[in-house]
Amino acid sequence: MPVRPPATGEDPRIVRSRAIILAAAHDHFVAHGYLGANIDALAEEAGVSKRTVYNIYGGKEELFRAVLDRAIGIAEEFSRELADAMATVGLEGLAVRLVRVLLSDRVVPLRRLLIGESRRFPELAAAYYDRAPGLVMRTLAEHLPTLPGLRIDDPDTAAAHFAFLVVGAPLDRAMFGEQRLGDTELERAALAGVAAFRRAYAAAGNGP
Amino acid sequence: MPVRPPATGEDPRIVRSRAIILAAAHDHFVAHGYLGANIDALAEEAGVSKRTVYNIYGGKEELFRAVLDRAIGIAEEFSRELADAMATVGLEGLAVRLVRVLLSDRVVPLRRLLIGESRRFPELAAAYYDRAPGLVMRTLAEHLPTLPGLRIDDPDTAAAHFAFLVVGAPLDRAMFGEQRLGDTELERAALAGVAAFRRAYAAAGNGP
C-alpha cells in the first residue's frame, strides 16, 4: 500500500498509521455503512489501537469524511483520466473504459455508500457527483462537438445520452446488487450504446 | 389513508393499527435508514404504543421487511400501469410518465433506501429491481418491435436504450440528492431522449 512521503516535520509513524487506517476504514464503511461502522472493530482490522484512531481522527464522523474525501479524490482522478483519454481513444475506446471504471469493485460500493448516506451527508454526495460523473459529462459536452461525422446541437444533452446509452442499464442493475455482467457482456453493451449514439447523432448524409 | 377491509375474523383495530404503523414506518425508515430507525420514535410518530408495534410486527427487521414489501408492491403497480399505458400513449407519452414516476418523491427515496441497504437486504433490492424497473424493461422489449417506423433487432438492448435515454441522467443526479429538475425541464429531457431514440432506431428510409 503506497504511503505518501511525510510533510516536513511530520512523524513518519503517524503518516504510516494514517494511510493504514484510511485503507481499513474505507473497507469497513463500505461493508457496514456509517451507522453500522464500529471504531473498535475498524481499529482491530487496521491492526492499530482504538486510541490511535481517535488521536489522529477525533471520531467516527471525521474519519468517515476523511475516507470519503479520499475516495472522491480517487474517483475524480479516474474521471480526469477518462476526460484526458477522450482526445485519443475514440468513442468506442472511451465507452469501454467508462463501463470498466464505473462497474468496478471500487466505484459500485462507493456509489452505494454515498447514495445510502446522501441524506446524512448531502455535501459528500454532491461533491462526488460534481467531481466524478459531472466532470466526465462536462468534458464529454466539450469533446463531442469536435468529432467528425456527428451533428451535436445541444452538447449537454448529447453528453448525457452518450453516458447513459453506454453505462445506464448495467450501472443501475449493479446499484441494486443484481449479478454483475461479465467483462465481455459489459463491453458488448457499451459498444451497442456507442452504435446507437452514432446513429442518433449522425451528421446529415451519414444516416442509416 | 386507505384502510383495507379486514380479513374474516380479523380485529378491525389491528387492521387499522397496521395501516397506520406501516405508513409511519415507511417515512421513518426513509428518513433514518435501517440502523438509524428507532421503534420508540416510530411508535410516537404513528401515535401508537411501542408495545403495539412489537405485538403486531415482532421487531424492527420484520417491520422493515413489511414496509419494503409494501413499497415494492406499490412500485410494481406503478410499473404495471406504465406497461399497460404503452399500447395507448405513444413513446412520447410513455417517456413523460416514466420520468414523472421515477423522479417522484415516492420513488427516489425508496431507491436510495434500497441501494443503501442492498448489502444487508440483498433479496429486497433484487425484488425491487425485478418487479419495478425490470418489469418496465421487459414490457418495453415486447412493445418496441410492434411500433411502426422503428427497426428493432435486439429488443432488450433497445428497451434499455429507451429507458436510459429518457430517465438516465436526471435519475442519477437525483440519487445523489442533486437539485431535482423542475417538471418542465424533466419533460424536455424526456422528450429529447425519445427524439434521440427515434433517430437511433429509425427504420430504413425513415432516417435523418
Textual characterization of the structure:
The structure is a homodimer of 208-residue chains. Chain A is mainly α. Chain A folds into two domains: 58 residues, Homeodomain-like (Arc Repressor Mutant, subunit A), CATH 1.10.10.60; 133 residues, Tetracycline Repressor, domain 2 (Orthogonal Bundle). Chain A is built from nine helices and no strands. In chain A, helix 4 crosses helix 9 and helix 6 packs parallel to helix 7. Chain A starts with 11 loop residues before the first helix and ends in an 8-residue tail after the last helix. The model of chain A has no long low-confidence stretch (mean pLDDT 91). The interface between A and B is large, with 47 and 46 residues.
Which descriptors would you attach to this protein?
208 residues; mainly alpha; Arc Repressor Mutant, subunit A; 0% strand; homodimer; 2 domains; Tetracycline Repressor, domain 2; 74% helix
Question: How would the blueprint of this fold be written?
Answer:
Two copies of one chain form a homodimer.
Chain A: H1 12-36, H2 39-46, H3 50-57, H4 60-102, H5 107-116, H6 122-131, H7 133-143, H8 155-175, H9 183-200
Helix pairs in contact in A: 1-2, 1-4, 1-5, 4-6, 4-7, 4-8, 4-9, 6-7, 7-8, 8-9
